[in-house]
């Protein structure tokens, strides 16, 4: 290992140390401390790096920040960062495990819905970054044997289930929310949502059990007939024709292939 | 011949719609390349529209040119992500910093971390720059960093380190006047001496930004926050830089607490006034 490699490993280790103020930094022997201590100097870079990561997390989890408050959000992000060092220069990739972290973070444990809200925000974030689907000539579908058809979901589509009314929680915390009524999180009903991009907007839509089962089957690349069977078993009132038409018009179903 | 001339602005999210709808009179724009890696994103779509009316300079922050290993998978993946972004953006200039962000183990901190200026580091950084220029198939500019600590073993002055990199790799330089001022204050060297030792022909872009003052253990440290108007002492140093290097394309850089566009345009006018003043004197 080169001297530079060792220095850089120690630098990052110091920046992510829980004890930077009480313990002598690993880098203390390598830096000039004639005016300011090693902890003081390392603190400048540590603060800046952590602030940059927290900024990225604020952009990904704005509703979580609103729910817990700015100070608590910053403190929990800092705790998260110290045990989850980024592994990419693309900060859009960072923070997927934050919801699981909050579920096990003692000061936030009683807010049992936070993990679900974080998952929704993470999927919303990914959906905003995904590519659009390519245009499709649906007339070609008739040339494929019906038994071999697989329908494809648009790249931005994400499916999410939650024991909490996370869509209502999310909506209530948007800047354009006009209603401010309490949300009952004790309701024991599963929330089924799809998140997808429509033009320059990312949308969240509630779906029925049958619709969710249909889309989930497509996401797992089941044949169309098998997906229909699963969906109707979940909900025998589902109108497959109307459902497919709706999702194709919304570009949630964005293509097909001959399986 | 580059279409990057005059005084440009850093393009930030809050001003996207103004650049699409109003098309303010700005000769070029600079973006943070890492914000547009996902080409399908909403931001990238807005940028694609803006690119049709403005020449673009792509300023990277994550190439980590000072990382000790050029084989780090994290870093290699990022270089290829940047290449894909450059390929659709087609910027006139591409730049990054004389710094590091990723260790050889692939741990990454989103900040511009300092390099000790040793022969070992010089060879490593030169190798990394060559690698990036080879993958991107173009010259890149290297920006001088703002600095808050000195290493015990750092025998090569920063200006010599940069000059050696230009010689070894054929890279260009992006001279950040605010960073020269910040580092000169924090480390007690002469900023004019720094400018005088930078190879003239290598400077292809200048950055101007604001700093903040933090008191650390009783010592005033200038911190390169890019969140304030350019201070008078930096304007003075900029004028000296224009006298020495000529009318180099200049960017007004503002990254935090970004104000309304009118403020940036005002800073742009100040820079233009200095260029005009110096050019007339000659």
Question: Mind explaining what this structure looks like?
Answer:
The complex is a heterodimer of chains A (259) and B (282). By secondary structure, chain A is α+β, with helices and mostly antiparallel strands. Chain A folds into 2 domains: 1-111, no CATH class; 133-259, Outer Surface Protein A, domain 3. Chain A is 46% helix and 12% strand. Chain A is built from 10 helices and 5 strands. Chain A has helices spanning 3-15, 38-60, 62-68, 70-83, 98-104, 114-129, 166-172, 209-219, 224-234, 240-249, and strands at residues 149-153, 158-162, 191-198, 201-206, 253-258. In chain A, the strands form 2 sheets. A 3-stranded antiparallel sheet of chain A has the order 2-3-4, with helices on both faces. A two-stranded antiparallel sheet of chain A has the order 1-5. The longest helix of chain A has 23 residues, at 38-60. Chain A is elongated. With 282 residues, chain B is α/β, with parallel strands linked by helices. In chain B, 41% of the residues lie in helices and 19% in strands. In chain B, the strands form 3 sheets. Chain B has an 8-stranded parallel beta barrel. Chain B has a two-stranded antiparallel sheet with strand order 5-6. The longest helix of chain B is centred in the last third of the chain and has 21 residues, at 261-281. The radius of gyration of chain B is 18 Å and the shape is globular. The two termini of chain B are 24 Å apart. The chains are: A alpha+beta (259), B alpha/beta (282). Chains A and B meet through α1 and α2 of A and α2, α3, β5, β6 and α4 of B.
């Amino acid at each position: 290992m080169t001297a530079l490699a060792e220095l850089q490993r120690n630098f990052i280790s110091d920046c992510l140390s829980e004890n930077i103020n009480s313990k002598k930094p690993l880098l203390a022997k390598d830096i000039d401390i004639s005016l300011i201590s090693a902890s003081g100097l390392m603190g400048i870079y540590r603060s800046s790096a952590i602030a940059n990561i927290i900024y990225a997390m604020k952009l990904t989890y704005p509703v979580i920040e609103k729910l817990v408050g700015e100070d608590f959000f910053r403190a929990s992000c800092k705790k998260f960062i110290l045990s989850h060092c980024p592994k990419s220069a693309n900060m859009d990739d960072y923070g997927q495990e934050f919801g699981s972290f909050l579920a096990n973070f003692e000061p936030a444990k009683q807010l049992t819905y936070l993990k679900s809200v974080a998952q929704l925000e993470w999927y919303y974030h990914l959906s905003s970054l995904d590519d659009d689907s390519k245009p499709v000539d649906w007339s070609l579908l008739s040339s494929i044997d019906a038994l071999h058809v697989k329908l494809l979901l648009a790249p931005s589509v994400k499916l999410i289930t939650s024991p909490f009314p996370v869509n209502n929680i999310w909506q209530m915390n948007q800047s354009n929310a006009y209603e401010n009524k309490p949300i009952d999180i004790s309701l024991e009903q599963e929330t089924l949502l799809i998140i997808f991009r429509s033009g320059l907007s990312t949308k969240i839509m509630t779906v029925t059990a049958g619709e969710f089962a249909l889309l989930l089957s497509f996401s797992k690349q089941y044949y169309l007939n098998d997906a229909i069977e699963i969906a109707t078993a979940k909900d025998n009132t589902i109108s497959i024709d109307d459902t497919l038409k709706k999702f194709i018009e919304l570009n949630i179903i964005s293509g097909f292939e001959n399986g | 011949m580059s279409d990057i001339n005059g005084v440009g602005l850093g393009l930030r999210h809050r001003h996207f719609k103004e650049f699409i709808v109003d098309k303010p009179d700005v000769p070029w724009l600079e973006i943070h390349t890492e914000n547009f890696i996902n080409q399908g994103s909403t931001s990238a779509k807005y940028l694609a529209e803006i690119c049709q009316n403005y020449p673009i300079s792509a300023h990277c922050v994550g190439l980590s040119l000072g990382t000790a290993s050029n084989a780090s998978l994290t870093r290699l993946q990022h270089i290829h992500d940047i290449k894909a972004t450059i390929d659709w953006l087609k910027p006139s200039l591409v730049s990054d910093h004389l710094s590091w962000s990723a260790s050889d183990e692939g741990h990454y901190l989103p900040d511009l971390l300092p390099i000790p200026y040793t022969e070992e580091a010089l060879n490593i950084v030169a190798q990394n720059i060559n690698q990036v220029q080879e993958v991107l198939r173009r010259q890149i500019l290297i920006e001088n960093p703002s600095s808050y600590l000195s290493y015990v073993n750092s025998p090569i002055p920063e200006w010599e380190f940069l000059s050696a990199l230009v010689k070894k790799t054929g890279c260009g330089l992006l001279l950040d006047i605010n960073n020269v001022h910040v580092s000169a204050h924090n480390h007690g060297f002469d900023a004019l001496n720094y400018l005088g030792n930078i190879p003239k022909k290598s400077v292809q872009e200048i950055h101007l930004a604001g700093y903040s003052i933090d008191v650390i253990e009783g010592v005033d440290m200038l911190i390169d926050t890019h969140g304030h108007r350019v201070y008078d002492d930096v304007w003075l140093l900029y004028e000296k830089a224009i006298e020495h290097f000529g009318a180099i394309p200049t960017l007004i850089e503002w990254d935090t607490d970004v104000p309304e566009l009118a403020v940036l345009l005002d800073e742009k006018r100040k820079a233009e006034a200095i260029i005009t003043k110096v050019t007339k004197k000659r």
